[in-house]
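Continuing from the previous page...

OK, I double-checked the sequence for Peptidyl-prolyl cis-trans isomerase against my notes and this is the correct one:
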Amino acid sequence: MRKVLGFMVVIATFGLGSCFEGLESDLEKAIERDDRLVKEYLERNNIQAIETPLGYYYVKEESASNSNQIVNNDIIGVYYEIKTINGQLIDSYLDETKDPKIFKHSEGGLVPRAMNFASGLAKEGEVFTLYVPSYLGYQDYSYQQLILPNSNLEIRIKYAKVYSEAEIKAIEEEMILNYLEEKELTGFERTEEGLYIKILNASNGGTPAEDGDIVGFTFTLNQLGETQPIAEGKNPTSPTQISLGSESNLEFLNLSMTGLTNNTEFEVLVPSHLAFGVSTQVFPFQVRRDLFQKAYIPQVARPFEPLLFKAKIVDIR
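Thanks. Re-ran it with the corrected sequence; updated structure tokens here:
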């Protein structure tokens, strides 16, 4: 019963497990099946792992006794490898010459969930191997041949670094500056808040937009360095509209559009804290858009990465 209740929490926070909706007996059968398969795998391979109350197992491969314990709301950089207990590789990111992948240790912070849950057992620098029943992994979700439904997982994870919010902002600032240098882009001005704005085609006529105005605009929004838009609205006869200055707007919209006039075209490089904030992280990255399109996660934009916003104001009233 304890695991059933825990599984219900996971479903509520991830939105997966559609095949388990309904009777508790169906949940219990699914949990019993996965628990049995993981336990048999451990026994068959003579793996001495510690079972957690949630149902996953772990082995601490490398200790860091003098490091700080990871706690709730820590921002963590990790290296990892995810495969099924049958040996099928799902994702590998173990090259420590690269920057770690980042997520926030909080409710709904990471998919697969067990990697997030296990963070609370670890100290900075420690390495764990996790043995994860599917209800704490991807559940009944599938993606092509990469992720099959109800896959039980073996995950190796190094909790490499705990970041401060200031460090994250500095990392994103560096990403933006590197992008500008790599693309040889000029004309962007940094605002006090951390936006980089370039006016492409300033209009000399009309009244500058101010708080309370309804501003219509066309736009594309991309993860920095990627070509497929996260969102777009290109029809000038039916533009996206906001009430400028509203607290419900993404912060960068209020900051970048205030003072601009009608027909102005502009580009903005946006750090994540001025956009969508901390969204759920997903490993591997390539399934993120599919999870979003199926309404399993609330936001397609990745956390802790800048965005590129290109827009034209087409109406102010």
